[in-house]
Design goal:
Helix content is 34%, strand content 21%. By secondary structure, the chain is α/β, with parallel strands linked by helices. The protein has 2 domains: 134 residues, Nucleotidyltransferase, domain 5 (2-Layer Sandwich), CATH 3.30.420; 171 residues, 2-Layer Sandwich (Nucleotidyltransferase, domain 5). Helix 5 crosses helix 6 and helix 6 crosses helix 7.
Length: 326
């Protein structure tokens, strides 16, 4: 019987999942719109049914060794999601306990960026590295930090929240879903990029193909495509976003002294649009003792479901030698 891990990536908009073998091959996949479920109990029940249907579609018997889940503000110590800025679920959601009511398997819940970091270490470009960080650029900004070969969790599982460090203090700056003002992810994320572009458009008289799009209809992909076609204001939005990201990554180096920092997620797929201004600001703000020693790289997990691959890597890392019954 073939052994697989179930990897689940819970994002602010969508949830993706897959059965993944030890070599990182996807054997079956499923998707669920997270934003359609304001109640986590309903979401978990539908998720469990989706998993069971996926299993039925498999052409051979499988043994699920465990479940790895990456989610915003996932607490590895408790199996909970706590006060997530990018989900509709407020307070503390006992995600692992809710899922165990439907599926009797070992379950590990952690920050989505921590899952990405494990995936990078096992399947990506961080193989052999003991000190690195992964920055996830999606609806929000997440960060997974590895020190001496181990994920950094801290006292209660929430170490390394780079996205919720303040870059613009003061009550007149951008409100964040975490309840504070001026967090990095309000500027550096898919949503932050949109907010930046709307501010740039309102302050400029230059033409832009994006002027007639509403905020809700616009996506970061729209902005990237317009920038590639030469839209000046779209380019400015990426420049501003990259400058802020590079500045904060230089601070991250001072705190953690990594060998490399990997950019992961939808916004990172804009490649040169985001990478070039980020690199300029990064190198321009690095303390001299770190210059030339830290690589800033795109993630080595290139598939569209690389976040799921990272989540499954958590399960393989923790439960790979466990015999599970399903």
């Amino acid at each position: 019987m073939k052994k697989v891990a179930l990897g689940i990536d819970i994002g602010g908009t969508n949830t993706d999942m897959a059965f993944v073998d030890r070599e990182g091959n996807f054997l079956a996949e499923g998707h669920l719109p997270t934003s359609n479920f304001p109640e986590p109990e309903v979401f978990v029940a539908v998720l469990a049914e989706k998993v069971k249907l996926m299993k039925k579609t498999m052409g051979e018997p499988i043994e699920i060794i465990g479940i790895g889940i990456g989610a915003p503000m996932g607490n590895i110590n408790k199996g909970t999601i706590e006060e997530p800025a990018d989900l509709a679920w407020k307070g503390i959601t006992p995600l692992a306990d809710l899922l165990r009511e439907h599926i009797d398997l070992p379950i590990l819940v952690t920050n989505d960026a921590n899952a990405a970091a494990v995936g990078e270490m096992i399947y990506g470009s961080a193989k052999g590295m003991k000190n690195f960080a992964v920055i996830t650029l999606g609806t929000g900004l997440g960060s997974g930090i590895v020190i001496d070969g181990k994920l950094l969790y801290g006292q209660d599982g929430f170490a390394g929240e780079v996205g919720h460090t303040i870059v613009r203090p003061g009550s007149t700056n951008r409100e964040c879903g975490c309840g504070r003002v001026g967090c990095l992810e309000t500027y550096v994320s898919a949503t932050g990029l949109k907010r930046t572009l709307f501010k740039i458009i309102s302050d400029s008289i230059l033409e832009s193909e994006l002027r007639d799009l509403s905020f809700n209809d616009m996506t970061s992909l729209n902005i990237a495509e317009a920038a590639e076609r030469g839209d000046v204001l779209a380019k400015r939005a990426f420049e501003h976003t990259g400058e802020m990201l590079g500045l904060k990554l230089a601070d991250l180096v001072a705190h953690t002294n990594p060998e490399a920092i990997f950019l992961f997620g939808g916004l990172a797929l804009a490649k040169g649009l985001i990478m070039e201004p980020t690199l300029r600001a990064f190198h321009g703000n690095l303390l001299s003792i770190y210059r030339g020693k830290v690589k800033l790289l795109p993630s080595g997990l290139n598939s569209k479901n690389s976040a799921v691959l990272g989540a499954s890597a958590l399960a393989w890392d923790q439960f790979g030698s466990v015999e599970a019954n399903t």
